Input
Amino acid sequence: MTDCDFLVVGHGLAGATLADELRRRGHQVLVYDAGRPDSASRVAAGLVNPVAGRRFALAWRAAELIPYATAYYRALEARFGQPFFTAAPIFKVFGSAQEQADIVARSATQPWGDFVGDVLAHDPGLPGVLAPHGGAWLRHGGYLAVAELLGALAAEGTAAGWLRRETFDWGRLVSAPAGAEPEFVYDGTVRARHVVCCEGAEAVHNPYFSWLPLTPNQGEVLDVECAGLDAGQVLNRSAYVVPLGAGRFRVGATYRWPPFAEGPTADRRAELAGRLGALTAAPFAVVGQRAGVRPAVRDRKPLLGPHPAVPGLSFCGGYGSKGVVLAPRLAALLADWLAGRAELWPEASLARYAALWPAPVAAVERA
Ligand SMILES: Cc1cc2nc3c(=O)[nH]c(=O)nc-3n(C[C@H](O)[C@H](O)[C@H](O)COP(=O)(O)OP(=O)(O)OC[C@H]3O[C@@H](n4cnc5c(N)ncnc54)[C@H](O)[C@@H]3O)c2cc1C
Output
Protein backbone atom coordinates (compact mmCIF):
# COMPACT_ATOMS: atom_id res chain seq x y z
CA MET A 1 0.00 0.00 0.00
CA THR A 2 1.28 3.48 -0.93
CA ASP A 3 0.38 6.07 1.72
CA CYS A 4 0.05 9.79 1.00
CA ASP A 5 -1.53 12.84 2.56
CA PHE A 6 -2.97 14.19 -0.70
CA LEU A 7 -3.96 12.43 -3.87
CA VAL A 8 -4.19 15.06 -6.63
CA VAL A 9 -5.98 14.15 -9.88
CA GLY A 10 -4.72 16.28 -12.79
CA HIS A 11 -1.42 18.00 -13.43
CA GLY A 12 -2.43 21.01 -15.48
CA LEU A 13 -1.86 24.46 -14.04
CA ALA A 14 -4.35 23.86 -11.22
CA GLY A 15 -3.06 20.46 -10.09
CA ALA A 16 0.62 21.24 -10.66
CA THR A 17 0.60 24.41 -8.58
CA LEU A 18 -1.48 22.76 -5.85
CA ALA A 19 0.76 19.68 -5.71
CA ASP A 20 3.84 21.92 -5.62
CA GLU A 21 2.37 24.05 -2.84
CA LEU A 22 1.42 21.00 -0.76
CA ARG A 23 4.81 19.38 -1.26
CA ARG A 24 6.61 22.58 -0.24
CA ARG A 25 4.58 22.46 2.99
CA GLY A 26 5.98 19.01 3.71
CA HIS A 27 3.03 16.83 2.69
CA GLN A 28 3.27 13.49 0.92
CA VAL A 29 1.56 14.04 -2.42
CA LEU A 30 0.70 11.58 -5.18
CA VAL A 31 -0.47 12.98 -8.54
CA TYR A 32 -2.26 11.16 -11.35
CA ASP A 33 -2.29 12.79 -14.76
CA ALA A 34 -3.43 11.24 -18.01
CA GLY A 35 -1.32 13.66 -20.05
CA ARG A 36 -4.13 14.62 -22.42
CA PRO A 37 -2.61 16.57 -25.34
CA ASP A 38 -5.69 18.81 -25.60
CA SER A 39 -5.70 19.87 -21.94
CA ALA A 40 -6.05 23.62 -21.66
CA SER A 41 -2.65 24.05 -20.05
CA ARG A 42 -0.82 22.29 -22.89
CA VAL A 43 -2.37 24.62 -25.46
CA ALA A 44 -2.45 27.95 -23.59
CA ALA A 45 -0.54 30.96 -24.84
CA GLY A 46 0.41 31.71 -21.24
CA LEU A 47 -0.63 35.34 -21.36
CA VAL A 48 -1.04 37.41 -18.21
CA ASN A 49 -3.15 40.37 -19.28
CA PRO A 50 -4.29 42.76 -16.55
CA VAL A 51 -6.92 44.57 -18.64
CA ALA A 52 -8.79 42.52 -21.21
CA GLY A 53 -12.03 41.83 -22.95
CA ARG A 54 -14.49 43.96 -24.84
CA ARG A 55 -15.18 46.06 -21.74
CA PHE A 56 -11.44 46.71 -21.21
CA ALA A 57 -11.95 45.97 -17.52
CA LEU A 58 -9.30 45.33 -14.90
CA ALA A 59 -8.98 41.59 -14.27
CA TRP A 60 -10.42 40.14 -11.06
CA ARG A 61 -8.11 40.83 -8.07
CA ALA A 62 -5.35 41.82 -10.51
CA ALA A 63 -3.43 43.85 -7.94
CA GLU A 64 -3.03 40.79 -5.72
CA LEU A 65 -2.96 37.91 -8.20
CA ILE A 66 -0.53 39.24 -10.81
CA PRO A 67 2.38 40.07 -8.46
CA TYR A 68 1.78 36.79 -6.63
CA ALA A 69 1.87 34.76 -9.84
CA THR A 70 4.95 36.57 -11.11
CA ALA A 71 6.85 35.94 -7.88
CA TYR A 72 5.78 32.29 -7.87
CA TYR A 73 7.01 31.68 -11.42
CA ARG A 74 10.25 33.51 -10.67
CA ALA A 75 10.82 31.20 -7.70
CA LEU A 76 10.31 28.17 -9.96
CA GLU A 77 12.80 29.62 -12.44
CA ALA A 78 15.38 29.85 -9.64
CA ARG A 79 14.62 26.28 -8.57
CA PHE A 80 14.89 24.75 -12.05
CA GLY A 81 17.53 27.12 -13.45
CA GLN A 82 15.27 27.69 -16.46
CA PRO A 83 13.32 30.75 -17.68
CA PHE A 84 9.52 30.40 -17.62
CA PHE A 85 7.98 33.85 -17.26
CA THR A 86 8.68 36.84 -19.49
CA ALA A 87 7.50 40.21 -18.21
CA ALA A 88 6.45 42.19 -21.28
CA PRO A 89 4.51 45.33 -22.11
CA ILE A 90 1.22 44.64 -23.85
CA PHE A 91 0.09 47.02 -26.57
CA LYS A 92 -3.70 47.06 -26.73
CA VAL A 93 -4.48 48.23 -30.26
CA PHE A 94 -7.64 50.32 -30.60
CA GLY A 95 -9.84 48.80 -33.29
CA SER A 96 -11.78 51.96 -34.13
CA ALA A 97 -12.04 55.70 -33.51
CA GLN A 98 -14.98 54.94 -31.21
CA GLU A 99 -12.95 52.52 -29.08
CA GLN A 100 -10.14 55.05 -28.92
CA ALA A 101 -12.53 57.79 -27.79
CA ASP A 102 -14.10 55.54 -25.12
CA ILE A 103 -10.82 54.43 -23.60
CA VAL A 104 -9.21 57.87 -23.78
CA ALA A 105 -12.25 59.27 -21.96
CA ARG A 106 -12.13 56.55 -19.29
CA SER A 107 -8.38 56.97 -18.84
CA ALA A 108 -8.99 60.36 -17.22
CA THR A 109 -10.27 58.58 -14.10
CA GLN A 110 -7.61 55.81 -14.26
CA PRO A 111 -9.91 52.92 -13.31
CA TRP A 112 -7.06 50.50 -14.00
CA GLY A 113 -4.56 51.69 -11.38
CA ASP A 114 -1.02 51.56 -12.69
CA PHE A 115 -1.81 48.61 -15.02
CA VAL A 116 -2.41 51.05 -17.87
CA GLY A 117 0.43 53.35 -18.90
CA ASP A 118 0.37 55.64 -21.92
CA VAL A 119 -2.90 55.85 -23.84
CA LEU A 120 -2.14 56.96 -27.39
CA ALA A 121 -4.59 58.53 -29.82
CA HIS A 122 -2.07 58.13 -32.63
CA ASP A 123 -0.23 55.25 -34.30
CA PRO A 124 3.01 54.72 -32.33
CA GLY A 125 4.71 53.25 -35.40
CA LEU A 126 5.64 49.87 -33.92
CA PRO A 127 7.43 47.75 -36.55
CA GLY A 128 4.93 45.74 -38.56
CA VAL A 129 1.93 46.78 -36.44
CA LEU A 130 -1.23 48.29 -37.91
CA ALA A 131 -2.57 50.73 -35.30
CA PRO A 132 -4.11 53.72 -37.10
CA HIS A 133 -6.32 54.54 -34.09
CA GLY A 134 -3.51 54.25 -31.54
CA GLY A 135 -3.68 52.07 -28.46
CA ALA A 136 -2.83 51.69 -24.79
CA TRP A 137 0.28 50.31 -23.14
CA LEU A 138 -0.52 47.82 -20.40
CA ARG A 139 1.94 47.24 -17.59
CA HIS A 140 2.78 44.31 -15.27
CA GLY A 141 1.69 41.70 -17.82
CA GLY A 142 3.71 39.06 -19.61
CA TYR A 143 3.60 35.46 -20.66
CA LEU A 144 4.43 32.07 -19.20
CA ALA A 145 5.94 29.12 -21.05
CA VAL A 146 3.23 26.86 -19.62
CA ALA A 147 4.21 23.61 -21.32
CA GLU A 148 7.86 24.04 -20.30
CA LEU A 149 6.93 24.83 -16.71
CA LEU A 150 4.60 21.83 -16.42
CA GLY A 151 7.22 19.69 -18.14
CA ALA A 152 9.85 20.65 -15.56
CA LEU A 153 7.51 19.93 -12.65
CA ALA A 154 6.34 16.65 -14.21
CA ALA A 155 9.92 15.49 -14.87
CA GLU A 156 10.67 16.11 -11.19
CA GLY A 157 7.53 14.17 -10.25
CA THR A 158 8.09 11.14 -12.43
CA ALA A 159 11.74 10.92 -11.36
CA ALA A 160 10.82 11.14 -7.66
CA GLY A 161 7.80 8.87 -8.05
CA TRP A 162 5.11 11.33 -6.94
CA LEU A 163 3.58 11.69 -10.44
CA ARG A 164 1.95 8.81 -12.27
CA ARG A 165 1.08 9.15 -15.94
CA GLU A 166 -2.21 7.30 -15.62
CA THR A 167 -5.90 8.01 -15.95
CA PHE A 168 -7.49 8.08 -12.52
CA ASP A 169 -10.63 5.95 -12.39
CA TRP A 170 -13.01 7.48 -9.85
CA GLY A 171 -14.98 4.24 -9.78
CA ARG A 172 -12.06 2.62 -7.96
CA LEU A 173 -11.95 5.18 -5.17
CA VAL A 174 -13.40 4.04 -1.86
CA SER A 175 -13.93 6.45 1.01
CA ALA A 176 -14.14 5.69 4.72
CA PRO A 177 -17.63 5.28 6.18
CA ALA A 178 -19.39 8.42 7.44
CA GLY A 179 -18.23 9.45 10.90
CA ALA A 180 -14.74 7.93 10.57
CA GLU A 181 -11.58 9.99 9.96
CA PRO A 182 -11.42 10.93 6.25
CA GLU A 183 -9.49 8.28 4.38
CA PHE A 184 -9.56 7.02 0.83
CA VAL A 185 -8.26 3.86 -0.75
CA TYR A 186 -7.66 3.89 -4.48
CA ASP A 187 -7.53 0.69 -6.49
CA GLY A 188 -6.71 -1.23 -3.32
CA THR A 189 -3.13 0.05 -3.48
CA VAL A 190 -3.05 3.75 -2.54
CA ARG A 191 -4.25 5.21 0.75
CA ALA A 192 -4.78 8.99 1.07
CA ARG A 193 -6.18 11.34 3.69
CA HIS A 194 -7.40 13.83 1.07
CA VAL A 195 -8.27 13.68 -2.62
CA VAL A 196 -8.35 16.81 -4.78
CA CYS A 197 -9.97 16.89 -8.22
CA CYS A 198 -7.98 19.15 -10.58
CA GLU A 199 -9.26 17.62 -13.83
CA GLY A 200 -9.86 20.85 -15.75
CA ALA A 201 -12.80 20.65 -18.15
CA GLU A 202 -12.84 16.84 -17.77
CA ALA A 203 -14.46 17.37 -14.37
CA VAL A 204 -17.84 17.59 -16.11
CA HIS A 205 -17.66 13.78 -16.17
CA ASN A 206 -16.55 13.45 -12.55
CA PRO A 207 -19.05 11.38 -10.55
CA TYR A 208 -18.62 13.62 -7.48
CA PHE A 209 -18.43 17.04 -9.13
CA SER A 210 -20.47 16.90 -12.33
CA TRP A 211 -23.13 19.08 -10.64
CA LEU A 212 -20.78 22.09 -10.63
CA PRO A 213 -21.64 24.68 -13.31
CA LEU A 214 -18.57 24.11 -15.47
CA THR A 215 -19.20 25.32 -19.01
CA PRO A 216 -16.25 23.93 -21.03
CA ASN A 217 -15.20 26.06 -23.94
CA GLN A 218 -12.95 24.98 -26.79
CA GLY A 219 -10.22 27.33 -27.97
CA GLU A 220 -7.69 27.24 -30.76
CA VAL A 221 -4.33 28.98 -31.20
CA LEU A 222 -2.00 29.34 -34.15
CA ASP A 223 1.77 29.40 -34.07
CA VAL A 224 3.16 31.64 -36.81
CA GLU A 225 6.52 32.72 -38.11
CA CYS A 226 6.65 36.44 -38.77
CA ALA A 227 9.96 38.19 -39.34
CA GLY A 228 8.30 41.62 -39.53
CA LEU A 229 7.07 41.74 -35.92
CA ASP A 230 9.08 42.71 -32.88
CA ALA A 231 9.28 40.22 -30.00
CA GLY A 232 9.62 42.98 -27.39
CA GLN A 233 5.92 43.26 -26.71
CA VAL A 234 2.65 41.39 -26.73
CA LEU A 235 0.01 42.70 -29.12
CA ASN A 236 -3.68 42.56 -28.38
CA ARG A 237 -6.65 43.54 -30.46
CA SER A 238 -9.25 40.98 -31.51
CA ALA A 239 -6.38 38.49 -31.22
CA TYR A 240 -3.36 38.41 -28.96
CA VAL A 241 0.13 37.86 -30.37
CA VAL A 242 2.56 36.38 -27.86
CA PRO A 243 6.27 35.99 -28.73
CA LEU A 244 7.61 32.43 -28.63
CA GLY A 245 11.19 33.27 -29.62
CA ALA A 246 13.11 32.73 -32.86
CA GLY A 247 10.67 34.83 -34.90
CA ARG A 248 7.65 32.78 -33.82
CA PHE A 249 4.45 34.00 -32.19
CA ARG A 250 1.36 32.34 -30.72
CA VAL A 251 -1.87 33.90 -31.91
CA GLY A 252 -5.10 33.31 -30.06
CA ALA A 253 -7.64 32.53 -29.29
CA THR A 254 -11.02 31.34 -30.49
CA TYR A 255 -14.05 30.39 -28.40
CA ARG A 256 -16.39 27.54 -29.29
CA TRP A 257 -19.25 26.19 -27.20
CA PRO A 258 -20.26 22.52 -27.52
CA PRO A 259 -20.46 20.55 -29.69
CA PHE A 260 -16.67 20.67 -29.95
CA ALA A 261 -14.61 19.96 -33.04
CA GLU A 262 -12.26 16.98 -33.13
CA GLY A 263 -9.04 18.98 -32.77
CA PRO A 264 -7.95 22.03 -34.80
CA THR A 265 -10.18 23.21 -37.63
CA ALA A 266 -9.75 25.03 -40.95
CA ASP A 267 -12.41 27.63 -40.12
CA ARG A 268 -10.72 28.67 -36.85
CA ARG A 269 -7.35 28.77 -38.61
CA ALA A 270 -8.82 31.19 -41.16
CA GLU A 271 -10.45 33.22 -38.39
CA LEU A 272 -7.20 33.62 -36.44
CA ALA A 273 -5.18 34.33 -39.57
CA GLY A 274 -7.71 37.03 -40.47
CA ARG A 275 -7.45 38.59 -37.02
CA LEU A 276 -3.65 38.58 -37.22
CA GLY A 277 -3.88 40.14 -40.69
CA ALA A 278 -5.83 43.03 -39.14
CA LEU A 279 -2.95 43.59 -36.70
CA THR A 280 0.02 43.40 -39.03
CA ALA A 281 0.86 44.02 -42.65
CA ALA A 282 3.96 41.82 -42.28
CA PRO A 283 3.80 38.45 -44.06
CA PHE A 284 3.50 35.42 -41.79
CA ALA A 285 3.41 31.66 -42.15
CA VAL A 286 1.30 29.38 -39.97
CA VAL A 287 3.58 26.68 -38.52
CA GLY A 288 1.26 25.14 -35.94
CA GLN A 289 -2.31 24.98 -34.74
CA ARG A 290 -3.70 23.54 -31.52
CA ALA A 291 -7.04 23.13 -29.82
CA GLY A 292 -7.83 22.71 -26.14
CA VAL A 293 -10.77 22.97 -23.77
CA ARG A 294 -11.00 25.68 -21.12
CA PRO A 295 -12.56 24.81 -17.76
CA ALA A 296 -14.87 27.82 -17.79
CA VAL A 297 -17.51 28.48 -15.12
CA ARG A 298 -20.92 30.05 -15.47
CA ASP A 299 -19.99 33.18 -13.47
CA ARG A 300 -16.36 33.25 -14.69
CA LYS A 301 -14.92 32.75 -11.22
CA PRO A 302 -12.87 29.78 -9.96
CA LEU A 303 -14.25 26.83 -8.05
CA LEU A 304 -12.43 25.82 -4.88
CA GLY A 305 -13.34 23.85 -1.85
CA PRO A 306 -14.78 20.72 -0.30
CA HIS A 307 -17.38 18.33 -1.63
CA PRO A 308 -20.61 18.96 0.30
CA ALA A 309 -20.90 15.39 1.59
CA VAL A 310 -17.59 13.53 1.25
CA PRO A 311 -15.12 14.63 3.93
CA GLY A 312 -11.57 14.92 2.60
CA LEU A 313 -12.61 15.33 -1.05
CA SER A 314 -12.04 18.75 -2.63
CA PHE A 315 -12.13 20.53 -5.97
CA CYS A 316 -9.64 23.00 -7.43
CA GLY A 317 -10.18 24.59 -10.84
CA GLY A 318 -12.63 26.43 -13.01
CA TYR A 319 -9.89 28.79 -14.15
CA GLY A 320 -11.46 29.50 -17.54
CA SER A 321 -9.10 31.53 -19.69
CA LYS A 322 -7.02 32.83 -16.77
CA GLY A 323 -5.18 29.85 -15.36
CA VAL A 324 -1.73 31.43 -15.45
CA VAL A 325 -2.62 34.28 -13.17
CA LEU A 326 -5.08 32.40 -10.94
CA ALA A 327 -3.34 29.10 -10.26
CA PRO A 328 -0.48 30.07 -7.90
CA ARG A 329 -2.47 32.21 -5.44
CA LEU A 330 -5.47 29.88 -5.42
CA ALA A 331 -3.24 26.86 -4.81
CA ALA A 332 -1.88 28.64 -1.74
CA LEU A 333 -5.38 29.63 -0.65
CA LEU A 334 -6.68 26.06 -0.93
CA ALA A 335 -3.61 24.71 0.87
CA ASP A 336 -4.17 27.25 3.66
CA TRP A 337 -7.82 26.25 3.87
CA LEU A 338 -6.93 22.54 3.95
CA ALA A 339 -4.60 23.32 6.86
CA GLY A 340 -7.40 25.20 8.65
CA ARG A 341 -5.53 28.48 8.36
CA ALA A 342 -7.75 30.48 6.00
CA GLU A 343 -11.30 30.86 4.81
CA LEU A 344 -11.95 30.38 1.11
CA TRP A 345 -12.83 33.60 -0.70
CA PRO A 346 -16.62 33.54 -1.08
CA GLU A 347 -16.50 34.48 -4.76
CA ALA A 348 -14.10 31.57 -5.46
CA SER A 349 -15.65 29.01 -3.14
CA LEU A 350 -17.74 26.29 -4.75
CA ALA A 351 -20.11 26.70 -1.79
CA ARG A 352 -21.75 29.52 -3.76
CA TYR A 353 -23.26 26.79 -5.93
CA ALA A 354 -24.33 24.51 -3.06
CA ALA A 355 -27.94 24.82 -4.19
CA LEU A 356 -27.05 22.94 -7.39
CA TRP A 357 -25.90 19.89 -5.50
CA PRO A 358 -28.56 17.20 -5.92
CA ALA A 359 -27.50 15.08 -2.96
CA PRO A 360 -29.78 16.23 -0.18
CA VAL A 361 -32.10 13.68 -1.79
CA ALA A 362 -29.40 10.98 -1.61
CA ALA A 363 -28.67 11.92 2.01
CA VAL A 364 -32.30 11.41 2.92
CA GLU A 365 -32.31 8.05 1.14
CA ARG A 366 -29.23 6.93 3.13
CA ALA A 367 -30.86 7.98 6.40
C1 LIG B 1 -6.66 27.93 -26.68
C2 LIG B 1 -6.44 28.31 -25.23
C3 LIG B 1 -5.64 29.40 -24.94
C4 LIG B 1 -5.44 29.77 -23.62
N1 LIG B 1 -4.63 30.84 -23.35
C5 LIG B 1 -4.45 31.21 -22.06
C6 LIG B 1 -3.60 32.31 -21.76
O1 LIG B 1 -3.00 32.93 -22.64
N2 LIG B 1 -3.46 32.66 -20.44
C7 LIG B 1 -4.11 31.99 -19.44
O2 LIG B 1 -3.97 32.36 -18.26
N3 LIG B 1 -4.90 30.94 -19.70
C8 LIG B 1 -5.09 30.55 -20.98
N4 LIG B 1 -5.90 29.50 -21.26
C9 LIG B 1 -6.64 28.89 -20.15
C10 LIG B 1 -5.74 27.97 -19.34
O3 LIG B 1 -5.15 27.06 -20.22
C11 LIG B 1 -6.59 27.28 -18.26
O4 LIG B 1 -7.16 28.23 -17.40
C12 LIG B 1 -5.75 26.34 -17.41
O5 LIG B 1 -4.80 25.69 -18.16
C13 LIG B 1 -6.64 25.33 -16.70
O6 LIG B 1 -5.82 24.48 -15.95
P1 LIG B 1 -6.40 23.17 -15.27
O7 LIG B 1 -5.26 22.52 -14.59
O8 LIG B 1 -7.61 23.49 -14.47
O9 LIG B 1 -6.94 22.27 -16.48
P2 LIG B 1 -6.11 21.43 -17.62
O10 LIG B 1 -5.00 22.23 -18.13
O11 LIG B 1 -7.15 20.98 -18.56
O12 LIG B 1 -5.50 20.23 -16.81
C14 LIG B 1 -6.27 19.14 -16.36
C15 LIG B 1 -5.36 17.93 -16.31
O13 LIG B 1 -6.06 16.86 -15.68
C16 LIG B 1 -5.79 15.68 -16.40
N5 LIG B 1 -6.93 14.79 -16.12
C17 LIG B 1 -8.25 15.04 -16.27
N6 LIG B 1 -8.96 13.97 -15.84
C18 LIG B 1 -8.08 13.06 -15.41
C19 LIG B 1 -8.19 11.74 -14.84
N7 LIG B 1 -9.37 11.18 -14.58
N8 LIG B 1 -7.05 11.07 -14.53
C20 LIG B 1 -5.84 11.62 -14.74
N9 LIG B 1 -5.68 12.85 -15.27
C21 LIG B 1 -6.77 13.55 -15.59
C22 LIG B 1 -5.68 16.11 -17.84
O14 LIG B 1 -4.92 15.17 -18.59
C23 LIG B 1 -4.94 17.44 -17.70
O15 LIG B 1 -3.56 17.26 -17.72
C24 LIG B 1 -6.08 29.06 -22.57
C25 LIG B 1 -6.85 27.94 -22.87
C26 LIG B 1 -7.03 27.56 -24.19
C27 LIG B 1 -7.85 26.34 -24.50
